[in-house]
Write a structure and sequence with these properties.
Blueprint lengths: L11 H27 L9 H8 L19 H13 L12 H10 L1 H10 L15 H14 L30 H43 L12 H9 L2 H10 L15 H14 L2
Helix pairs in contact: 3-6, 3-7, 5-6, 7-10, 9-10
């Protein structure tokens, strides 16, 4: 007589347990695998920095002002635009231009030290005189120029040769007399919108000019509040001055007062540019 096939399941309770495990174990395994795949960083490919590096744009577009080549100004030009504001009058302890006694200490330190101080800033003087768009070579030329007026013979980087190619001015097109009558009507029709837009455009142009003059001339003192100058954006410092009225502020800026030299030391500035700079600073303090 053959032996019957035996099974480990002897009771109904064991059968129920086996059936439940048959469903529960695969579901648990699938859940754990899913969590493992979808959570956390896994190896080098999961690093956020590496992911950003892989998906970053191929290139970027940078818009800038249409200005001349950087680094092309002479020492005299840099002095007139930037350094003159303080060195013309000896403002905030700056050695006065042409004063050999005042420059003696600077000359004794040597040109390398003077160049380094001018580029990185020293005491009351901000880096590059507050005009950080200047190249290091331009700053060195300005220092050598001022030192030369005090008797030194320092060597500064030469100004690069200007490009030989020049663009000839295009001749102005001849007026189309025959088409003038036909064009008269559209011009008249467009006159009203143009006139309405003119004040806004003029205000924007004035703001741009004021910021430009502030950045190149006024920031030296007003950026840090040197020699009692009201600091840019400081409403409390500007409030009593604004109360005197814009004509009084224009007069001080144009003709100087106290430690402030006329036109901030840059006497080549047109009056309109100086007034635009005053408007820009006042608007920032209101």
């Amino acid at each position: 007589m053959t032996e019957e096939h035996s099974t480990p399941i002897k009771t109904p309770k064991q059968l129920v347990i086996v059936v439940l495990l048959a469903f529960a174990v695969p579901i648990t395994v699938v859940g754990l695998l899913s969590q493992l795949v979808t959570s956390g960083e896994h190896g080098e490919k999961g690093s956020p920095d590496l992911v950003l590096a892989r998906i970053q744009p191929v290139g970027t577009v940078v818009l800038g002002e249409a200005t001349g080549p950087k680094g092309m100004m002479t020492g005299e030009q840099v002095y007139g635009q930037v350094c003159k504001a303080c060195h013309e009058t000896g403002l905030a302890g700056a050695p006065k231009f042409g004063d050999k006694a005042a420059w003696a200490r600077v000359l004794a330190e040597g040109q390398d030290t003077a160049f380094d101080h001018a580029i990185k800033g020293f005491k009351a003087m901000p880096p590059k005189g507050g005009s950080t768009d200047l190249s290091d070579d331009e700053v060195k030329r300005a220092v050598a120029y001022m030192a030369g007026k005090a008797g030194a013979n320092w060597t500064a980087p030469a100004v690069p040769a200007a490009a030989t190619a020049t663009t000839a001015a295009a001749p102005a097109p001849a007026p189309a007399a025959a088409s003038a009558p036909a064009a008269a009507a559209p011009v008249v029709a467009a006159a009203a919108p143009a006139a309405a837009a003119a004040p806004a455009a003029a205000a924007a142009a004035s703001g741009d000019a004021g910021k430009k003059i502030y950045d190149s001339t006024c920031v030296v003192c007003h950026g840090a509040g040197l020699a009692g100058a009201p600091k840019f954006g400081d409403k409390a410092a500007w409030a009593p001055r604004i109360k005197t009225g814009m004509p009084a502020l224009y007069d001080v800026a144009l003709h100087g007062k106290g430690a402030m030299p006329p036109k901030g030391g840059n006497t080549a500035l047109p009056d309109a540019d100086v007034k635009a700079a005053v408007d820009y600073m006042v608007s920032a303090a209101k």
